[in-house]
Specification:
This protein is α/β, with parallel strands linked by helices. It has seven helices and eight strands. It is elongated, with a radius of gyration of 20 Å. The model has no long low-confidence stretch (mean pLDDT 93).
Length: 237
C-alpha cells in the first residue's frame, strides 16, 4: 500500500466525526478529541485500520474472491458504483435487497433471469411479443437492473463486503455477520465497530472522505488481482 499522510486525510476531511451527543462509546478508542461539540477522529488509528483492511482486500482479490461494495446513501452512490466498476467488483447502491446474502439462492435466480432477458433483448428475440408485452418485459428488466444489476457478475455469495456507513447499512452487516462473511466498513463516531471485522474510523458523510477510502479499496483489489494474474502465469509456465 502506498504511504498515506495524515495531511492527505486532513485535506479529505476524514477526521470529522459526528456531534458529541450522537457518539457511540464503543468508538472511544478512535476519537482524538472534540472541537465545538464535534468529535475528531484519531487519524493515526484510521491509518492503521486502513492498512489492515487494505491487506485483507489484497489477499481476498489475490485468492480470486469477490468484494461486494455497498453504499446506498445519497452522497455515496455514485462514488461506490464507480469504485466497484473500476476494479470489476459487484455493488449495491440503490437499496439493500433483503436476503441478498442470507437467501442468495433466490437472488441468484433473479440474476439469471436478468441476464436472460437482457440477452434475449439484445438478440432481438423480444420482437415476437406484442408491444404491450414488450413494454412489460422492459419494465421488468428495468426493475431488476435497478435492484440487482450491480450483482449481475455474481455466481456465488461474495466473500466479503466493503460498506460505506455502518449505521445506514446495518441490515447488510447483520446478514454478513449471520453468514460469517467478513465486513470492511467506514465507521463514523456513531457506529458500533464491534460488528465489523475491519472497521475504518472515518467521516462517512463527506464525499471527499468517502472517495478517498473507496479508491484505496480499489487499489487493494487491483493489487490483489495483479498478483493473481502473475500467479496464474507462473503456473502456466
Amino acid at each position: 500500500m502506498r504511504e498515506i499522510s495524515l495531511l492527505e486525510m486532513l485535506q479529505k476531511g476524514v477526521h470529522f466525526g459526528h456531534q458529541e451527543s450522537r457518539w457511540s462509546p464503543k468508538m472511544r478508542p478512535y476519537i482524538f478529541t472534540s472541537r465545538n461539540g464535534i468529535h475528531i477522529i484519531d487519524l493515526e488509528a484510521t491509518r492503521d485500520k486502513i492498512r489492515s483492511a487494505y491487506d485483507f482486500v489484497v489477499a481476498l482479490a489475490k485468492s480470486g474472491g469477490q468484494l461486494l461494495f455497498v453504499g446506498t446513501k445519497r452522497q455515496a452512490k455514485v462514488i461506490v458504483r464507480k469504485a466497484a466498476e473500476t476494479c470489476g467488483m459487484p455493488f449495491m447502491v440503490e437499496r439493500w435487497v433483503g436476503g441478498a446474502l442470507t437467501n442468495f439462492a433466490t437472488i441468484h435466480e433473479l440474476i439469471k433471469k436478468l441476464r436472460r432477458l437482457k440477452s434475449e433483448q439484445a438478440a432481438g428475440m423480444l420482437e415476437k411479443y406484442t408491444k404491450k408485452e414488450q413494454l412489460n418485459i422492459q419494465k421488468e428488466i428495468n426493475k431488476l437492473q435497478n435492484e440487482i444489476g450491480g450483482l449481475e457478475m455474481l455466481e456465488k455469495i461474495p466473500q466479503a463486503l466493503f460498506v460505506v456507513d455502518a449505521i445506514k447499512e446495518r441490515t447488510a452487516i447483520r446478514e454478513a455477520n449471520k453468514m460469517n462473511i467478513p465486513v470492511v466498513a467506514i465507521c463514523d463516531t456513531n457506529s458500533n465497530p464491534d460488528l465489523i471485522k475491519f472497521p475504518i474510523p472515518a467521516n462517512d458523510d463527506a464525499t471527499k472522505a468517502i472517495d478517498f477510502i473507496c479508491n484505496l479499496m480499489v487499489e487493494a483489489v487491483n493489487e490483489g488481482k495483479s498478483n493473481l494474474d502473475l500467479t496464474a502465469k507462473e503456473i502456466q509456465k
